[in-house]
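Figure 3 (text version): structure tokens given as input.
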């Protein structure tokens, strides 16, 4: 569904706590490489209470949009 908030409650605090323990976060998505900017913007825009998602590389599908949907 387009426009739906797919963010899980508490994920920003969880990932922040994980990075405070010395781990690095890497985001993995099946989104097409052409959606890289919008995906990064989405991740940067996730703010819950006083937490936001930590920075990390975003690994994406090298396929084009239509191929990534299958």
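Below: residues designed for each position.
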């Amino acid at each position: 569904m387009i426009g739906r908030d797919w963010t899980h409650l508490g994920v920003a605090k969880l990932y922040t706590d994980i990075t405070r323990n010395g781990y690095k976060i890497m985001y993995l998505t099946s989104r097409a490489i052409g959606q890289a900017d919008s995906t990064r913007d989405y991740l940067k825009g996730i703010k819950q209470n006083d937490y936001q998602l930590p920075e990390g590389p975003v690994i994406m599908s090298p396929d084009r949009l239509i191929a990534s949907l299958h």
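Residues 11-68 form one domain.
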